[in-house]
Amino acid sequence: MHISQLTLSHFRSHKYTQVQVESGPVALFGSNGAGKTNLIEAISLLSPGKGIRKANTADLSKSPDNIGWKLNAEVVSGVSSNLIETSWETTSSRIVKINDKVVKQNDLAKVFRVVWLLPSMDRLWLEGADGRRKFLDRLTLSFFPKHADCVLNYEKAMRERNRLLKEKMTDDVWYKALERQMAQNGLLIQSNRIAALKKISSAQENSTTTFPIAELSLSKTNGDLTTDEDEFVKALSENRQLDVMAGRTLELGYPPVILLDEISAHLDIDRRGALYQEINALGAQAWMTGTDKNLFSEFGCKAKYFHVIESSGISDIKEVDFSVD
Protein backbone atom coordinates (compact mmCIF):
# COMPACT_ATOMS: atom_id res chain seq x y z
CA MET A 1 0.00 0.00 0.00
CA HIS A 2 1.31 3.44 -0.87
CA ILE A 3 0.37 6.98 -1.79
CA SER A 4 1.12 7.82 -5.42
CA GLN A 5 -0.01 11.44 -5.34
CA LEU A 6 -0.71 13.89 -2.52
CA THR A 7 -2.12 17.41 -2.85
CA LEU A 8 -2.46 19.98 -0.07
CA SER A 9 -4.47 23.17 -0.51
CA HIS A 10 -4.40 25.93 2.15
CA PHE A 11 -3.32 23.36 4.73
CA ARG A 12 -1.14 24.72 7.55
CA SER A 13 1.87 26.39 5.86
CA HIS A 14 1.14 24.81 2.47
CA LYS A 15 -0.85 27.11 0.18
CA TYR A 16 -0.63 24.59 -2.66
CA THR A 17 1.66 21.58 -2.63
CA GLN A 18 1.56 18.51 -4.85
CA VAL A 19 3.82 15.50 -4.47
CA GLN A 20 4.06 12.51 -6.83
CA VAL A 21 5.92 9.48 -5.50
CA GLU A 22 6.39 5.76 -6.01
CA SER A 23 5.97 2.89 -3.57
CA GLY A 24 9.35 3.27 -1.84
CA PRO A 25 10.55 5.45 1.06
CA VAL A 26 10.11 9.23 0.95
CA ALA A 27 12.63 11.53 2.67
CA LEU A 28 11.52 15.07 3.49
CA PHE A 29 14.38 17.31 4.59
CA GLY A 30 14.77 20.98 5.39
CA SER A 31 15.13 23.50 8.18
CA ASN A 32 13.03 23.41 11.33
CA GLY A 33 9.66 25.07 10.69
CA ALA A 34 9.84 24.59 6.92
CA GLY A 35 6.63 22.52 6.83
CA LYS A 36 7.90 18.92 6.78
CA THR A 37 5.75 17.72 9.68
CA ASN A 38 2.74 19.50 8.18
CA LEU A 39 3.07 17.18 5.18
CA ILE A 40 3.00 14.01 7.21
CA GLU A 41 0.19 15.44 9.34
CA ALA A 42 -1.81 15.76 6.13
CA ILE A 43 -1.21 12.06 5.41
CA SER A 44 -2.31 11.10 8.91
CA LEU A 45 -5.65 12.82 8.25
CA LEU A 46 -6.35 10.35 5.45
CA SER A 47 -7.22 7.90 8.24
CA PRO A 48 -9.91 8.07 10.97
CA GLY A 49 -9.32 10.60 13.73
CA LYS A 50 -7.59 13.94 14.18
CA GLY A 51 -4.17 12.93 12.90
CA ILE A 52 -0.75 13.08 14.50
CA ARG A 53 -1.27 16.41 16.30
CA LYS A 54 -4.91 15.88 17.30
CA ALA A 55 -5.58 19.45 16.20
CA ASN A 56 -8.98 21.06 15.86
CA THR A 57 -10.21 21.14 12.28
CA ALA A 58 -10.21 24.94 12.07
CA ASP A 59 -6.59 25.14 13.26
CA LEU A 60 -5.42 23.29 10.14
CA SER A 61 -6.39 26.12 7.83
CA LYS A 62 -3.55 28.26 6.49
CA SER A 63 -3.24 31.63 8.20
CA PRO A 64 -4.03 34.40 7.61
CA ASP A 65 -6.29 33.18 4.77
CA ASN A 66 -8.49 30.96 6.97
CA ILE A 67 -10.73 29.96 4.08
CA GLY A 68 -10.68 26.25 4.84
CA TRP A 69 -8.42 23.48 3.55
CA LYS A 70 -8.45 20.43 1.29
CA LEU A 71 -6.35 17.26 0.99
CA ASN A 72 -6.40 14.86 -1.97
CA ALA A 73 -4.53 11.58 -2.32
CA GLU A 74 -4.40 8.63 -4.64
CA VAL A 75 -3.84 5.47 -2.61
CA VAL A 76 -2.64 2.31 -4.35
CA SER A 77 -3.08 -1.15 -2.84
CA GLY A 78 -1.99 -4.00 -5.08
CA VAL A 79 -3.68 -3.56 -8.43
CA SER A 80 -6.46 -1.29 -7.12
CA SER A 81 -6.43 2.41 -6.30
CA ASN A 82 -8.72 4.82 -4.47
CA LEU A 83 -9.04 8.58 -4.45
CA ILE A 84 -9.36 10.07 -0.97
CA GLU A 85 -10.45 13.62 -0.34
CA THR A 86 -10.96 15.30 3.02
CA SER A 87 -11.73 18.98 3.40
CA TRP A 88 -13.12 21.65 5.66
CA GLU A 89 -14.79 24.97 4.95
CA THR A 90 -15.46 27.61 7.57
CA THR A 91 -19.23 27.11 7.33
CA SER A 92 -19.30 23.31 7.53
CA SER A 93 -17.89 20.31 9.33
CA ARG A 94 -15.06 18.18 7.93
CA ILE A 95 -16.05 16.24 4.80
CA VAL A 96 -14.56 12.90 3.76
CA LYS A 97 -14.91 11.39 0.29
CA ILE A 98 -13.69 8.13 -1.23
CA ASN A 99 -13.87 8.01 -5.02
CA ASP A 100 -16.10 11.13 -4.99
CA LYS A 101 -18.60 9.55 -2.59
CA VAL A 102 -19.19 11.15 0.81
CA VAL A 103 -18.45 8.62 3.56
CA LYS A 104 -17.91 8.41 7.31
CA GLN A 105 -14.44 8.95 8.72
CA ASN A 106 -14.18 5.32 9.86
CA ASP A 107 -14.62 4.20 6.25
CA LEU A 108 -11.13 5.56 5.55
CA ALA A 109 -9.68 2.55 7.38
CA LYS A 110 -11.08 0.29 4.66
CA VAL A 111 -8.93 1.83 1.93
CA PHE A 112 -5.93 3.38 3.71
CA ARG A 113 -3.83 2.23 6.64
CA VAL A 114 -1.17 4.31 8.33
CA VAL A 115 0.89 4.23 11.53
CA TRP A 116 3.24 6.84 12.95
CA LEU A 117 5.99 7.49 15.45
CA LEU A 118 6.77 11.02 16.63
CA PRO A 119 9.24 12.69 19.03
CA SER A 120 6.31 13.45 21.36
CA MET A 121 5.82 9.68 21.77
CA ASP A 122 9.27 9.17 23.33
CA ARG A 123 7.77 8.41 26.74
CA LEU A 124 5.11 6.08 25.39
CA TRP A 125 6.46 3.09 27.35
CA LEU A 126 7.18 5.04 30.54
CA GLU A 127 3.92 6.85 31.17
CA GLY A 128 0.26 5.81 31.53
CA ALA A 129 -1.30 2.85 29.73
CA ASP A 130 -3.85 5.01 27.88
CA GLY A 131 -1.27 6.26 25.38
CA ARG A 132 -0.01 2.73 24.72
CA ARG A 133 -3.56 1.48 24.12
CA LYS A 134 -4.16 4.23 21.55
CA PHE A 135 -0.87 3.44 19.85
CA LEU A 136 -1.74 -0.28 19.79
CA ASP A 137 -5.18 0.49 18.38
CA ARG A 138 -3.58 2.48 15.56
CA LEU A 139 -1.35 -0.53 14.76
CA THR A 140 -4.33 -2.90 15.04
CA LEU A 141 -6.33 -0.76 12.63
CA SER A 142 -3.67 -1.47 10.00
CA PHE A 143 -4.52 -5.18 10.18
CA PHE A 144 -8.25 -5.01 10.95
CA PRO A 145 -10.06 -1.99 9.40
CA LYS A 146 -13.29 -2.73 11.33
CA HIS A 147 -11.40 -2.27 14.59
CA ALA A 148 -12.25 1.44 14.49
CA ASP A 149 -15.97 0.64 14.64
CA CYS A 150 -15.43 -1.65 17.65
CA VAL A 151 -13.55 1.09 19.52
CA LEU A 152 -16.16 3.71 18.56
CA ASN A 153 -19.05 1.51 19.71
CA TYR A 154 -17.31 0.62 22.97
CA GLU A 155 -16.49 4.25 23.79
CA LYS A 156 -20.01 5.37 22.89
CA ALA A 157 -21.56 2.82 25.27
CA MET A 158 -19.00 3.69 27.96
CA ARG A 159 -19.75 7.42 27.69
CA GLU A 160 -23.47 6.74 28.05
CA ARG A 161 -22.79 4.50 31.06
CA ASN A 162 -20.57 7.21 32.55
CA ARG A 163 -23.42 9.69 32.17
CA LEU A 164 -25.76 7.40 34.09
CA LEU A 165 -23.12 6.92 36.77
CA LYS A 166 -22.50 10.65 37.10
CA GLU A 167 -26.22 11.33 37.41
CA LYS A 168 -26.48 8.39 39.86
CA MET A 169 -29.21 6.74 37.80
CA THR A 170 -30.45 3.35 39.03
CA ASP A 171 -32.17 1.95 35.93
CA ASP A 172 -30.81 -1.61 35.92
CA VAL A 173 -32.19 -2.45 32.46
CA TRP A 174 -30.40 0.51 30.90
CA TYR A 175 -27.14 -0.36 32.62
CA LYS A 176 -27.34 -4.01 31.51
CA ALA A 177 -27.94 -3.06 27.87
CA LEU A 178 -24.94 -0.71 27.84
CA GLU A 179 -22.72 -3.19 29.71
CA ARG A 180 -23.62 -5.90 27.21
CA GLN A 181 -22.58 -3.59 24.35
CA MET A 182 -19.32 -2.80 26.15
CA ALA A 183 -18.64 -6.50 26.72
CA GLN A 184 -19.30 -7.48 23.10
CA ASN A 185 -17.15 -4.72 21.64
CA GLY A 186 -14.55 -4.94 24.41
CA LEU A 187 -13.86 -8.59 23.63
CA LEU A 188 -13.61 -7.84 19.91
CA ILE A 189 -11.12 -5.04 20.68
CA GLN A 190 -9.10 -7.37 22.91
CA SER A 191 -9.11 -10.13 20.30
CA ASN A 192 -8.01 -7.74 17.55
CA ARG A 193 -5.22 -6.32 19.69
CA ILE A 194 -3.88 -9.77 20.56
CA ALA A 195 -4.04 -10.87 16.92
CA ALA A 196 -2.19 -7.72 15.83
CA LEU A 197 0.57 -8.31 18.38
CA LYS A 198 0.93 -11.91 17.17
CA LYS A 199 1.28 -10.74 13.58
CA ILE A 200 3.91 -8.16 14.55
CA SER A 201 5.81 -10.72 16.65
CA SER A 202 5.70 -13.24 13.81
CA ALA A 203 7.05 -10.63 11.38
CA GLN A 204 9.89 -9.85 13.80
CA GLU A 205 10.86 -13.52 14.05
CA ASN A 206 11.23 -13.65 10.27
CA SER A 207 13.28 -10.46 10.12
CA THR A 208 16.79 -10.72 8.70
CA THR A 209 17.96 -7.22 9.67
CA THR A 210 19.86 -6.15 12.79
CA PHE A 211 17.10 -3.84 14.06
CA PRO A 212 16.21 -4.71 17.70
CA ILE A 213 13.26 -7.03 18.34
CA ALA A 214 10.62 -6.13 20.93
CA GLU A 215 8.81 -8.63 23.16
CA LEU A 216 5.13 -7.71 22.93
CA SER A 217 2.18 -8.91 25.00
CA LEU A 218 -1.21 -7.75 26.24
CA SER A 219 -1.87 -8.00 29.97
CA LYS A 220 -4.28 -6.84 32.64
CA THR A 221 -3.16 -4.90 35.71
CA ASN A 222 -4.78 -7.41 38.08
CA GLY A 223 -5.55 -11.01 37.10
CA ASP A 224 -6.01 -12.63 33.72
CA LEU A 225 -7.67 -11.15 30.65
CA THR A 226 -11.41 -11.77 30.49
CA THR A 227 -12.37 -13.90 27.49
CA ASP A 228 -16.05 -14.65 28.25
CA GLU A 229 -18.76 -12.12 27.42
CA ASP A 230 -20.90 -12.98 30.46
CA GLU A 231 -17.86 -12.63 32.75
CA PHE A 232 -17.17 -9.23 31.22
CA VAL A 233 -20.76 -8.13 31.87
CA LYS A 234 -20.62 -9.52 35.41
CA ALA A 235 -17.42 -7.60 36.15
CA LEU A 236 -18.96 -4.33 34.95
CA SER A 237 -22.11 -5.00 36.97
CA GLU A 238 -20.18 -5.82 40.14
CA ASN A 239 -18.08 -2.68 39.81
CA ARG A 240 -21.09 -0.48 39.21
CA GLN A 241 -21.36 0.77 42.78
CA LEU A 242 -17.69 1.77 42.85
CA ASP A 243 -18.11 3.42 39.46
CA VAL A 244 -21.13 5.34 40.76
CA MET A 245 -18.94 6.74 43.52
CA ALA A 246 -16.25 7.70 41.02
CA GLY A 247 -18.69 8.99 38.43
CA ARG A 248 -17.00 7.09 35.60
CA THR A 249 -15.96 3.69 34.33
CA LEU A 250 -12.86 2.84 36.32
CA GLU A 251 -5.97 -9.72 8.28
CA LEU A 252 -2.36 -9.20 7.26
CA GLY A 253 -2.10 -7.75 3.72
CA TYR A 254 0.04 -4.95 2.35
CA PRO A 255 2.09 -3.10 5.00
CA PRO A 256 0.65 0.27 6.07
CA VAL A 257 2.15 3.61 5.17
CA ILE A 258 4.59 4.61 7.94
CA LEU A 259 5.15 8.18 9.16
CA LEU A 260 8.40 8.83 11.04
CA ASP A 261 8.95 12.40 12.23
CA GLU A 262 12.59 13.33 12.97
CA ILE A 263 13.38 9.66 13.58
CA SER A 264 17.01 10.04 12.48
CA ALA A 265 17.72 12.49 15.31
CA HIS A 266 16.97 9.77 17.89
CA LEU A 267 19.10 6.92 16.49
CA ASP A 268 22.82 6.38 16.13
CA ILE A 269 24.14 5.59 12.66
CA ASP A 270 24.06 1.79 13.17
CA ARG A 271 20.47 1.69 14.49
CA ARG A 272 19.42 4.15 11.82
CA GLY A 273 20.87 1.92 9.11
CA ALA A 274 19.17 -1.14 10.63
CA LEU A 275 15.82 0.69 10.67
CA TYR A 276 16.17 1.66 7.02
CA GLN A 277 17.01 -1.97 6.16
CA GLU A 278 13.85 -3.06 7.97
CA ILE A 279 11.72 -0.54 6.06
CA ASN A 280 13.14 -1.79 2.76
CA ALA A 281 12.60 -5.42 3.80
CA LEU A 282 8.96 -4.70 4.66
CA GLY A 283 8.38 -3.10 1.29
CA ALA A 284 6.61 -0.28 3.11
CA GLN A 285 6.27 3.31 1.98
CA ALA A 286 7.74 5.34 4.84
CA TRP A 287 7.51 9.13 4.91
CA MET A 288 10.36 10.47 7.04
CA THR A 289 11.43 13.96 8.06
CA GLY A 290 14.86 15.29 8.96
CA THR A 291 16.93 18.44 8.79
CA ASP A 292 19.53 17.10 6.34
CA LYS A 293 19.40 14.88 3.27
CA ASN A 294 22.48 12.95 4.40
CA LEU A 295 20.51 11.54 7.33
CA PHE A 296 18.80 9.28 4.78
CA SER A 297 21.88 8.36 2.76
CA GLU A 298 21.61 4.66 3.67
CA PHE A 299 18.55 4.43 1.42
CA GLY A 300 20.60 5.49 -1.59
CA CYS A 301 18.55 5.52 -4.78
CA LYS A 302 15.75 3.45 -3.22
CA ALA A 303 14.12 6.59 -1.78
CA LYS A 304 12.60 9.79 -3.15
CA TYR A 305 14.12 12.97 -1.73
CA PHE A 306 12.26 16.26 -1.30
CA HIS A 307 13.67 19.54 -0.04
CA VAL A 308 11.06 21.51 1.94
CA ILE A 309 11.65 25.24 2.31
CA GLU A 310 9.67 28.11 3.78
CA SER A 311 9.46 31.69 2.60
CA SER A 312 7.18 34.38 4.05
CA GLY A 313 5.17 31.74 5.89
CA ILE A 314 4.52 29.60 2.80
CA SER A 315 6.04 26.14 2.36
CA ASP A 316 7.40 24.93 -0.95
CA ILE A 317 8.75 21.51 -1.91
CA LYS A 318 11.19 20.40 -4.57
CA GLU A 319 12.31 16.90 -5.54
CA VAL A 320 16.08 16.45 -5.65
CA ASP A 321 18.32 13.64 -6.87
CA PHE A 322 20.15 11.42 -4.44
CA SER A 323 23.74 12.33 -3.72
CA VAL A 324 25.77 12.51 -0.53
CA ASP A 325 26.90 16.06 0.17
Summarize the structure.
This protein is an alpha/beta fold.
Q: How would you sum up this structure, described in words?
A:
By secondary structure, this protein is an alpha/beta fold. It has 2 domains: 200 residues, 3-Layer(aba) Sandwich (Rossmann fold); 106 residues, no CATH class. The protein is built from 7 helices and 12 strands. Strands 2-1-4-5-6-7 form a 6-stranded antiparallel beta sheet, with helices on one face. A 6-stranded mixed beta sheet has the order 8-9-10-3-11-12. The longest helix has 34 residues.
Features:
six-stranded mixed β-sheet; Rossmann fold; 325 residues; globular; six-stranded antiparallel β-sheet; 7 helices; alpha/beta
The main pleated sheet reads as: 6 strands, antiparallel
Radius of gyration: 22 Å
How many helical elements? 7
Shape: globular
CATH homology group of the largest domain: P-loop containing nucleotide triphosphate hydrolases
Number of DSSP E strands: 12
* The CATH C-level class name of the largest domain: Alpha Beta
Parts with pLDDT < 50 across at least 5 consecutive residues: none
Approximate helicity band: 25-40%
Just name the CATH architecture of the largest domain.
3-Layer(aba) Sandwich
Strand order of the largest sheet: 2-1-4-5-6-7
Integer count of domains: 2
Give the class from helix and strand content and strand pairing.
alpha/beta
SS strand fraction: 15-25%
Roughly what is the average pLDDT, rounded to an integer? 88
The CATH topology of the largest domain, please? Rossmann fold
**In angstroms, what separates the terminal alpha carbons?**
31 Å
Order of helices and strands: EEEHEEEEEHHHHHEHEEE
